[in-house]
Amino acid sequence: MRFLVAGLNYRTASTELLERVAVNDRHLPDLLLKLHRQLGEALVLSTCNRTEVYTTGEDFAVERERLMQALGDMSDLTETEIAEVAYVYGGDEAIRHAIRVTCGLDSMVIGEHQIAGQVQTALRAAGEAGSVDTPLSRLFHFALRSSRRIREDTGIGRSRLTVSSIGVQLVERAVGSLRDRRVLLVGAGETGKLAARTLGRMGAGRLTVAGRNAERTERVAAELGGDWVLRENLVSAMANSDVVISATAANETIITTEMVEQALKNSDPAPSSLVMLDLAMPRDIDASVGELPGVTLYGLPDLQAIADEHRAERADAAAEAETIIESDVPRFNESLTALATEPVIRALGAHAEEIRQRELHSGLRRLRDLNNEERTVIESLTKSVVSKLLADPITFLRTSDDREAANAVSRLFGLLDTDNQTQAGAEVEAIKGDDA
Predict the structure, then answer these.
(1) Which of 5, 48, 71, 347 is the catalytic position?
(2) Cis peptide, bond prior to residue 269, ω within 30 of zero
């Protein structure tokens, strides 16, 4: 069985296409159940810069077709259209990709630390939906551990950069300085809070948080040291703002051209310019807002220039991270092999010990005149013989790349009913990843 992943990201697809496959938290459980029926194992990772579906399967060609069909269903794209923008990796390439994504090497903002939390959330959601089993669970737990080690051993994650933080940098470049600027934050989620904290470090003035839920919005505003309003008061809130940053999980546009026009008309005094930053996927702000006089609108694609600057600064750290990942892929495969065969090794040892004890007991009953020292010598001798006899089978199990190894040894030593696979054999079938 091999690991597979198919997806679209900021390098392969336009913002419009990424919006079409983006999955929010409310719709994720139903999607996972559907994918579980289609693919078997399924995990979905959907962020502002990517949507990916991970699965496992025996036949790469078959699973690839199913994955592409799943992405097509999610985006309403034809098979030809999805093939032009999607990528598919299998086997070691899929393992490598999962680790690269988790540690931030594949992010627009290289080393972005928020992605690890998003991976944890995706894994938890798949677990709660029952769409993930041992193989994918172990892959992403390993990827998270690898990500932590890479961040500790390289400089890839220094300064804790995120899409939110470089978005705020872009806004600062546009307005010259954030000091004394009135900022409206639309959305009380993690992305918005990260942006607000960056604004605070850059000396932004009054902050107002707009949200759907009064209790949550008030709590986040208090946490960030700002005021709050409900989302239905967006127009009046924008009328009293110099900068608007939106980062919600809405499925559709929440700030229209008409709303911004009304806000500008009601503003007193009227701002010389209104800078708006849309960090949401799908987008929160209608693209035509950027065409209004005096309004500057930035979206996720506009962050690429600043992201490239940070990428160049971290080139050496990225190279170190790639080296670590190249050694982690075989380590992961080895850990799967060892883990999968361990139940068979334990069963083999228990089986041999049972035979040794039975035969030793039978022999000692016929040698009644032995003293304690002689009995100890005989017991030690039988243990040594069993250990030497099991050495080669155990080495074979722990080092073999043959996914049938555990089943073969089990059948050879009579450890299982051939009509009913042992858990060890099942695990080998489930989690052994072949090379692509």
Answers:
(1) 48
(2) yes
